[in-house]
Amino acid sequence: MSTSADWIARGDKHIAKTYGRYPLVPVRGEGCRLWDADGKAYLDFLAGVAVNSLGHCHPKVVAALQQQAATLIHCSNYYHIPQQIELAEILCANSFADRAFFCNSGAEANEAALKLARKYSKEKHGENRFEVITTLGSFHGRTFGGISATGQEKVRLGFEPVVPGFSYVPFGDIEALRGAIGPDTCAVLLEPIQGEGGVNVPPAGYLAAVRELCDANGLLLIFDEVQVGCGRTGTLFAYQLEGVEPDIMTLAKALAGGPPIGAMLAREAIAESFGPGSHGSTFGGNPLMAAAGIAAMKVLLDDGILDNCLAMGDYLRRRLEELRSRYPFVVAVRGRGLILGMELSIDGAAIVNKALERGLLLNCTVGKVLRFVPPLTVTTAEIDEAIEILGSILAEFG
Ligand code: PLP
User: What pTM value is reported for the model?
Assistant: First the structure.
């Protein structure tokens, strides 16, 4: 049996060096727990970055995958795929949308959204109408469209020239958005809560004001719910928190409870611009991934997961606030449901490393915001365990 050290040494030789990886080799997961190749257990409050929202290897997702894998794994999108149809029905019945396009990741879902927005706007308003306004601190994926849309310079460095037609305004600043709209603007793309940018929640009323601006100027409103969708905020979709509906929404991460899938949802009048041959994906919405998506969505809708997310979100937030009141270098606790951020005035990396050593998985965004995105099935006992570990680490810095 290979140890973690063996795997890390082998990986160093042949895996592209695109990630600064922690010295952890996960080999098994169940619920909120992960075990490494040496048999050490971890409490997983990162959940594959908000992917394993139902916990690792949820039995209903596993059963759906096993059954579908033994029946039909893949077929072309040249044909009609029952599992994809059923998943689209579930998503449309529970959202603003009328149609779904399936792909394999969040970046691809955003590519689809951007392509659809341009095509619809050019058809409706003319050739020049292709510019998209996004927000500073956003993250929309690593494709060329994704890095062009992302409001963080660092993701574009070395890859220029990027896709033209994007501009960026401060998140939460409605006047800046108003000022950025021009005759060639076709859409506004934003995350209802910024995830990678530091768990940033916009001021109350911001999303409604963005919707109004879009309507007044004939712009499409695209919500990137890749990270905050599918139950993470305690509502099925984050836009439902404030009742502000987009025209297009992108999903991925938790949509199938672990397996890779992405989706772009749109209203009928807009989705019509994607006719046959306009866009596509070989694997997108294949029977295996779509079967997992159906199972995951049913668990989310029928098994009390959203209620647990709200209750545990409140509890975790309270426990994090206790830590904030004890340590002056904890500046703020924010978020909704079970996407919570703890902003520090000190560097967060050392805390994340110590947590890993002590069996708690977390991460840190923008250098100083600890991010908590545990499975939505997390229990009070697991939260208490995480707070115990985190508290003992913070005490060493205080
Ligand atoms: N959009 C948001 C809001 C994300 O958080 C991410 C990934 O973190 C993406 C898009 C990109 O998703 P993927 O890594 O699946 O391409």
Answer: 0.98
